[in-house]
């Protein structure tokens, strides 16, 4: 237990000195900056505020920069209705904008598209270079910038995007302690980020995020290439059968422990406490199991 650390994500809800101070008092050891949302100016303000409050509290709080990776992101979807995904960021309603033109070639009739960590599900009816038409299987309200998952679909995209490279350089310039790499699929993805750091004469530890089935298949090589690992259960639990996710989590933690590298268990930790003052019994057991 004494070696366990708590990672907290900073965002609009924590943008006051009082909130940051409360997080430090509650036991925050690592502050996560999520590059998927916000601007560099936003992140700079949060990092500056964190460091000011940490200095006042004589607290050591590490900074973890979470690179976006090639996350597919996109709103009320009635059951059994047809929707069209326009492969253009600037598409007008009623089409749903999705800024990945190559998807028309990657998807076929019958493929499933999961939205918002699986909260909504559609099935592809047809796909071409301009748009994807799909039938809603499980509907709901789809909000802006929610994630898109394509189980069993191999996408021809790099794990490290141009935006990730720019964010990594910014993190280096701002003395971040760790970099997390999203949607890693193979050890070579981690090596690519390592090259970016080397070009900047930096040696920030890299934390590969395991959230794709391909990464699970190459887990031993990825662990050897990284400086730690994150079990990103949100996307991983959507990309594979639900019953496999806890087994996979235990396997990754066991392998990381054997190598003596840090492992972060992430996503939906104490989720009910967004609305309730106490966790459920299942959530308390989940945290204890991860530790």
Can you walk me through this structure?
The protein has 291 residues and is of the alpha/beta class. The longest helix has 17 residues. The chain folds into two domains: 195 residues, Phosphoenolpyruvate-binding domains (TIM Barrel, Alpha-Beta Barrel), CATH 3.20.20; 78 residues, Beta Barrel (M1 Pyruvate Kinase, Domain 3). The chain has a seven-stranded parallel beta sheet with strand order 1-2-3-13-14-15-16. A seven-stranded mixed beta sheet has the order 4-12-8-9-10-6-7. It contains ten helices and 16 strands. Helix 1 packs across helix 2.
Helix-strand blueprint:
Elements: E1 7-10, H1 17-26, E2 30-34, H2 40-56, E3 62-67, E4 72-73, E5 76-77, E6 82-86, E7 96-97, H3 103-106, E8 112-115, E9 120-127, E10 131-138, E11 140-141, E12 147-149, H4 162-173, E13 178-181, H5 187-199, E14 206-210, H6 213-217, H7 219-225, E15 229-232, H8 233-239, H9 245-259, E16 263-266, H10 281-290
Parallel strand pairs: 1-2, 2-3, 3-13, 6-7, 13-14, 14-15, 15-16
Antiparallel strand pairs: 4-12, 5-11, 6-10, 8-9, 8-12, 9-10
Helix pairs in contact: 1-2, 5-7, 7-9
* Silhouette: globular
Counting DSSP E segments of at least 2 residues, the number of strands comes to 16
Structural class: alpha/beta
Uncertain runs are none
What kind of oligomer do you see? single chain
- The appropriate CATH architecture of the largest domain is Alpha-Beta Barrel
Strand arrangement, major sheet: 1-2-3-13-14-15-16
* DSSP strand content: 15-25%
CATH superfamily of the largest domain: Phosphoenolpyruvate-binding domains
